[in-house]
Amino acid sequence: MTTDLAADERFKTVLDRLTGLSQRDYYNPYSLFEWPESLPEDAWWMSPELLSVHGTGYGGTLTGEQLRAVSRWESLNFYSLNVHGIRELLTALVARIHTEEFALPSEYFHHVIGEENEHMWFFATFCRRYGRIYPVRTLGLAGPGVPEADHFLVFARLLIFEEIVDVFNQRMGVDERLHPTIRQVNQVHHQDESRHIAFGRQAVALLHSRLRDRLDRSRLDELERYLKRYMRSSVDSLVNPAVFRDAGLPEPYRVRREILADPAHEEYTRRVLRRSVDFMVNEQIFADDGIPPACAN
Ligand SMILES: [Fe+2]
Ligand SMILES: [Fe+2]
């Protein structure tokens, strides 16, 4: 891959531009944020339309107060997922930053690692100050067993993760119903992530185009199935029984099962994944836009 990646002029141009933007937009997160002592509890902490219960039969039975409680803990769950996802991302970048294969994006990786460490810090700070960091719910997703696709899969998963997060950040960053600190955390993250997503899209498209020359159809199909399972489990991890328990709802596991089985959850899945699925289809990484159904367990 070394020569191919190094020889790709377009990729090099994108990297130079993104590195320049990172330098230009550099900020100090440790002095940027205002952290009030507490945030009002009976308020929207997440845009109501982004709640997992939105539009579901179960959500229709909840009072305004209960919905706002769900929004509080679901907001914290969302930042917790960021904390865990960033840790995986950093591990992947650190493992590759000084390898020959990634010599070209190495300089850019230094910037991303710095920025992601700061994202992890402000998300974790938010969770610790105003609630808690939810532990990882292990996904137990078996890999597709295609070792040649290792780099591609890592960057494809990271891109999917960043694109899902950005759907929430974009909306919550400008939602006047949310406390200014919540808006600010989402807004600042969205600004950095637009660069990361631009990089991720270039890298994933390039890595997949190399794989198309080396892998037969059945293995490429296997990669598609795996990434779609990954998308499904990522969306379903936004529906967390620990959130429902903290929001004071009885039978939190039953609540999760009901939501995953509700037709509105399919609509939610489509909304959250639309951008990344469209990208995968346009780049011929996916043959179609179908995502496997939710599985409540
Ligand atoms: Fe980030
Ligand atoms: Fe990022």
Lay out the secondary structure.
Layout: H1 2-7, H2 9-24, H3 29-32, H4 64-96, H5 106-130, H6 150-172, H7 180-214, H8 217-236, H9 241-246, H10 252-261, H11 263-282
The chain binds fe (ii) ion (2 copies).
Residues 86, 116, 119, 189, 192-193 line the site of one fe (ii) ion.
Kindly provide the radius of gyration, computed on alpha-carbon positions and rounded to a whole number of angstroms. 20 Å
Question: By helix and strand content, what is the structural category?
Answer: mainly alpha
Molecular shape: globular
Bound small molecules, by name, code or SMILES, are: fe (ii) ion
- N-to-C terminal Cα separation, in Å? 40 Å
Order of helices and strands: HHHHHHHHHHH
**For the report, how would you describe the main beta sheet?**
none
- Tally the beta strands: 0
Count of the domains: 1
Oligomeric state? single chain
User: Hey, roughly how much beta strand do the residues contain?
Assistant: under 5%
Poorly predicted ranges: none
What does this entry show, briefly?
By secondary structure, the protein is mainly alpha-helical. The protein contains eleven helices and no strands.
Summarize the structure in words.
Helix 2 crosses helix 5 and helix 6 packs antiparallel against helix 7. This protein has 11 helices and no strands. The mean pLDDT is 94. It has 297 residues and is mainly α. The radius of gyration is 20 Å and the shape is globular. It is 67% helix and 0% strand. It has one domain: Ribonucleotide Reductase, subunit A (Orthogonal Bundle), CATH 1.10.620.
